[in-house]
Amino acid sequence: MDNKTADELKRRIESSVSPFHTVLYVMKELDEAGFERLFLDRKWKLKKGGKYYVNVYDSTIASFCVGENWQGENFRFAAAHSDFPCLKVKPDCQMESNGYIKMNVEVYGGAILNTWLDRPLSAAGRVIIKTDDIMKPEVRFVDFKQPLFIIPNLAIHMNREINKGVELNRQKDMIPVMALSETTDIKDTKNIWETYLADKTGVGAENILDYDMFLYPVETPCVLGLNGELFSAGRLDNMTSVQACVKGIKSNVPDDGFNMAVIYDSEEVGSGTKQGAGSVIIRNIIDRIFRKFGYDEETAECALADAVGLSVDVAHGIHPNMPEKNDPTNKLLLNHGFGIKTSAGERYASDPVVIGIVKGLCDRYDIKCQRFVNRSDIPGGSTLGTITVANIPMRMLDVGVPVLAMHSSRETMGIYDQVYLEKILERFFSYA
C-alpha cells in the first residue's frame, strides 16, 4: 500500500471541509511551491518562467505556470472541483420542539441522504462580519472541527418496514439536532446557533451579517482491506482529483509551454455560478494572461484551438454486490488504474485525440488506465468538463479514480488508483 499517497489524501480531506477550506489548503500548497498570488481586482505583472494563482471568490482557484520561452502556444489545462454533496445551513435556522433545538438545513447537491443519518456532524464555511466600511465587510473562515450535530434514524420498532427502503423527506427527515432546550449553557436559547457562531468567530452576534456554512461528517479517513489496499473517506469526490491537479501543476512546465489547473466550485449544483465552470471567469483570466504577454486575441484563439485539457472527477467502480449496474465490457476495477470516461450523449468531455495522448503517456510511463462507459439504460451523471469547453473551447477528456458509493457521506476507493491518477497529471503537464 502506498502510505505516502494515503497520508497526503487523508490530510487534504480532513482540511477540505468546505469549498472555501479546499481553496485555502490549495493556496497553502502553492505558496510553499513558490507560486505568486494574483488578485482579480488588481493589475498583474507577469513574466515568463513565473508561477501564479488567483483566488476566485474564495471557493474557486486558478493556477498557471509559464514556460521560459512560451510563445503563446502549447496550452495544457486540467480542472477538478472543490465542492461536494452535503447539508447547508439555512439562515434563521433554529427550530425547537419537544425539548430539542434543531437546525434547519437544505441539501446541497445529489447526496445519498440515508448515509447522513446517525453520523456525528460538524460545520465549516465562511462568516461575513460587519466593519466600518459597509462596502467591504470582513470574510472569516470557520471550521468547528468537533462533532456537534446528529440526524437520528427512526428505531426499527417504530417502522418495521425500514429495511424494505424508506424515502427521506428533505425538509422533515434531514433536520439535525444541535442541543437540548433545558441543558444548553447558552443563555439566549432563541439564537443558540448565532451565539455559538459568534463565539467561535470571536465577534458579537450583532456583527454577523451572513454566513455560508456546511455540515460534514467528522469521521477520520482510513486505510482498510486485509492488505491495506483500500481507502475510505468522505469527499473522495472530488479531493482525489484536486490532489492530482495540484501535484500536476507543481511539476515542471515545458520550456515553451503554458499549464493551467483550475479547481472550480459549484460542480455538484450545475456549475452555473460566477465561480463555476459555467462562468466566463476562467476564459477572462486566460485572455488577460495573453494580453499581459503582448499576445493578441487571435493568438489566444489559436492556442485554445490546439490546447489539450483534462476534466478530473471520480468514476463509478464496479460494485461488489451489484456488478450488473455497470456496462458489461467497459467497467472499472479498483486498483487497476484511473478511468477514461466517455459518453455518446456527451455527459463526459471526450475526444479521441486526447484519449490517444493519454494512452500514449500511460504506455510510455507505465501508468495503468481503464475505459469506462455507463450502461446504455442507466444514464450517468455529468461533470464540469463539457460545461468548461462550452466557454473555453478545446479538446478535453474526462478522467478520474474509480470509487464505490459515489455521493455517499463516505466513499471507498483503491489507493493505487490515486497513484496512477497523480502520475498521469504530472506527466501530462511536464511532457515536452
TrEMBL record:
Keywords: Aminopeptidase, Hydrolase, Metal-binding, Metalloprotease, Protease, Zinc. SUPFAM superfamilies: Aminopeptidase/glucanase lid domain (SSF101821), Zn-dependent exopeptidases (SSF53187). The keyword Protease applies. It holds the Pfam family Peptidase_M18. It comes from the Bacteria. Its EC number is 3.4.11.-. It is an enzyme of class 3 (hydrolase). GO terms for cellular component: cytoplasm. Its cofactor is Zn(2+). GO terms for molecular function: aminopeptidase activity; metallopeptidase activity; zinc ion binding. GO terms for biological process: proteolysis. Belongs to the peptidase M18 family. This is M18 family aminopeptidase. It comes from Butyribacter intestini.
